[in-house]
Amino acid sequence: MADKIVVKNLFVYYGKFQALKEINLTFTDRKITALIGPSGCGKSTLLRTLNRMNDLIKGVKVEGEVYLDGENIYLNNTNLVELRKKVGMVFQRPNPFPLTVFDNLVYGLRVRGTNNNRLLKEIVEKSLNNVWLWDELKDKLKKPALSLSLEQQQRLCLARLLAVEPEVILMDEPCSALDPIATGKIEELMFELKKEYTVVIVTHNMQQAARVSDFSGFLLLGDLIEFGETGKIFTAPKDERTQDYITGRFG
Amino acid sequence: MKKIIHFRVKPRIKEWIIETLIRSSAVIVIVSLILIFLFVGKETLPIFFSSEIKQEVNLNRLFLPQARQNEKFVWQPISTVPKYSIIPLIIGTLKTTIIALLFALPLAIGAAIFTSEFAPTWLRELIKPAIELLAGVPSVVLGFFGLIVLATWLQNIFSWTFRLNAITAGIALGLAILPVVYTVTEDALSAVPNSYREGSLALGANVWQTAWGVVLPAALPGIFAACVLGFGRAFGETMIVLMASGNAAITSLKFTDSVRTLSATIATELAEVVVGSAHYYTLFFIGTFLFVFTFINNILGQWFVQRLRKRLHGET
Ligand SMILES: Nc1ncnc2c1ncn2[C@@H]1O[C@H](COP(=O)(O)OP(=O)(O)O)[C@@H](O)[C@H]1O
Ligand SMILES: [Mg+2]
After folding, report:
1. Residue of A98, A111, A145 with shortest CB distance to B203
2. Segments forming the whole domain that contains residue A167
3. Which residue's C-alpha comes closest to atom 20 of ligand 1?
4. CA–CA distance from B223 to each of A158, B118, B201 (Å)?
5. Is residue A251 domain-resident?
6. For position B229, what pLDDT does the model report?
7. Which three-class secondary structure state does DSSP give residue A199?
8. Residues B33, B93: one domain?
9. Residue B292, SS3?
10. What are the pLDDT digits (tens) for B164-211?
């Protein structure tokens, strides 16, 4: 089991507000790691440090190191485009662009200068197949992506990401806008994904974390309280606060 | 008991009053529009129905080439043989409008993209009010600027035969429509949800690619609406073209010739025209033409914006 991402002594501030305190953890290659914890505890913040999306927010200060395959991504000369090519993200609300299904899927490729139409078509088919959307959408490639159902939109966003062949997939509550059936589909998909990708998922749904993840980290008020194998965290948590949270006594 | 009733009724009356006020103001706007159209339109009827007027001016004379050597399209309503072709006026209007759009659209849209996507906050706070201030400049001042300052600059650079021409007037006109195009475009860009930008950046696009590939398409309906508005404004704007165009009704496709626009023609001639003459009715015909043209422009524009929106967002 190889370490894909290693987070060392990470502190994150929004202005004066300390959102993450001394975070140390490791994300394992080709495993699903869940970040759990009550609202506002810093799950999204932690997730967004992994592809440096936090850089977009004004007044954010990040201290510490994050290593991707052994290389610190918080160096001044880190190539953000390359980083985000390797570490892709699916957002809480499906956010397909107001373009056609096809143009959404090839967006990431076009941005990188891939314009060969045959190649693009191949990749579109492949990535739609990967999220089990090809049969549903193969005749709708020229339709606006926003005319799809929410669940299709979310899978499209995932396909759009898979098209650029990332190594790590970050998911910030990817099912929170979806109904249980759609959620089931996405979860099933995650099992497929971890064969090839390192997946990090933020969720405040305990069952979901227990169902899909191999490792879990429990955050509380910016502290990483506990981290370990999901089985252990959910059956025999070491910390009382973790125990309280997963049994639903607070949060 | 009394108190309760008092409490309940009061807000209802208030609501009713407000609702009625809003509704009646909408009705007033629509009714006055119709009345304006009817009044102006009524004065064009003799051109179609009075046999006396029709001898002097009719649709054929207004629009079609006349059998005169080198004078197929001439606007000369007060010569011994009045000539009423409005083709030179339409050409003049189109020429100034095209120049105005060529000048203003790229500038306004570029500035809007810059302020909404690239500029740091302090610069945005500077540019936005500055451009919006331009909207408050009376058009007569812009016309004056075009006539005196702009015309001299351009003359010094290009040494045109006519100091006042379609280009001078068009640029001054462009200054007048720039703020409205800018404001509407900026609003459209700011209304693009940040989740699109984040999605694009997270896929490894840079800010330029994000602006071009996602933000612009998302805002396209709004930007198109801004252009339609700008076109309508430029087409009907009067004072600036009156002052800076040279005001000569020449039928020529050259942009360096002086021009006279439809609106400027009404403004210059209506005050001195003999009421009830062919000339008088023709000026009203031009007014109606402007009205209808602008109206159709706006309707088509809106229709197109809807279609665009549907195509992008899949709304039904
Ligand atoms: N852009 C921001 N500016 C200021 N504070 C923020 C910002 N984003 C998040 N926070 C704060 O940081 C804390 C952690 O937020 P977040 O990571 O979004 O939590 P979670 O995803 O666990 O709900 C919260 O207290 C939140 O209010
Ligand atoms: Mg969150």
Report:
1. A111
2. 3-246
3. A40
4. 30, 18, 23
5. no
6. 93
7. strand
8. no
9. helix
10. 999 999 999 999 999 999 999 999 999 999 999 999 999 999 899 999
- Predicted pLDDT at B4: 53
ipTM of the complex: 0.89
Coil vs helix vs strand at A97: coil
B197 found inside a domain? yes
Please give the Cα distance from B229 to B197 (Å, whole number): 27
Number of domains in chain B: 2
The pLDDT assigned to A229 comes to 93
Residue B206's domain is classified under what CATH number?
Answer: 1.10.3720.10
Show the 3-state SS of A54-70: HHHCCCEEEEEEEEECC
Distance A184 CA to ligand 2 centre (A): 21
Q: Indicate whether B121 and B49 sit together in one domain.
A: no
The percent of residues above 90 in pLDDT, for chain A, comes to 66
Q: Would you state the structure tokens that stand for residue B68, as one six-digit string?
A: 């005169």
Give the best residue of B124, B203, B206, B311 to mutate against chain A (max A CB count within 10 A). B203
- Chain A residues with a Cβ under 8 Å from any Cβ in chain B: 51, 53, 56, 80-82, 84-85, 88-89, 91, 93, 95-99, 107-108, 110-112, 143-148, 157, 160-161, 164
pLDDT in tens, B67-88: 877 778 999 998 888 899 999 9
> Which structural domain, as residue segments, surrounds residue B54?
11-59
Kindly give the number of the ligand 1 atom that is closest to the alpha carbon of A172.
21
- Distance from C-alpha of B50 to C-alpha of A163, rounded to nearest angstrom: 71
Total Cβ atoms within 10 A of residue A79: 11
Residue with the nearest Cα to atom 16 of ligand 1? A42
The answer to whether residue B165 sits within a structural domain is yes
State whether A84 and B218 contact (CB < 8 Å): no
Residue A27's DSSP bridge partners are: A5
Q: What average pLDDT score do residues A160-181 get? A: 90
In a domain? residue B87: yes
Same domain membership, residue B158 and residue B46: no
Contact criterion met (CB < 8 Å) for A95 and B193:
yes
Do B95 and B239 fall within a single domain? yes
The label of the residue with tokens 């993450």 reads A20
Number of domains in chain A: 1
Identity of the residue in A51, A110, A148 whose CB atom sits nearest the CB atom of B202:
A51
Same domain, B20 and B36: yes
Per-residue pLDDT at B251 exceeds 60: yes
Greater model confidence, A240 or B25? B25
- What tens digit of pLDDT does each residue of A62-92 get? 999 999 999 999 998 989 888 998 999 999 9
CB contacts, 8 Å: B315 with chain A: 146
In a domain, B2, yes or no: no
Say if residue B68 is in the same domain as residue B176: yes
